[in-house]
Amino acid sequence: MKVCIYGAGAIGGWIGMGLARAGCSVSVVARGGTLEALQLHGLRLNQGGTVSSQAVASSARPAELGVQDMVVLAVKAPSLPEVARQIAPLLGPDTVVLTAMNGVPWWFLQGFGGALAGKRLSSVDPAGEIAEAIPARHIVGCVVHASCSLDEPGQVHHHFGNKLIIGEPSGEKTARVLQLAALLEKAGFEAPVSDQIQKDIWFKLWGNMTANPISALTGATMDRVLDDELVTAFTHSIMLEAKEIGARIGIPIHQTPEERHVITRKLGAFKTSMLQDVEAGKPVELDALVSAVRELGQLTAVPTPSTNALLGLARLQARVKGLY
Question: Could you say which of 41, 178, 288, 310 has the lowest number of CB atoms within 10 Å?
Answer without folding.
Answer: 178
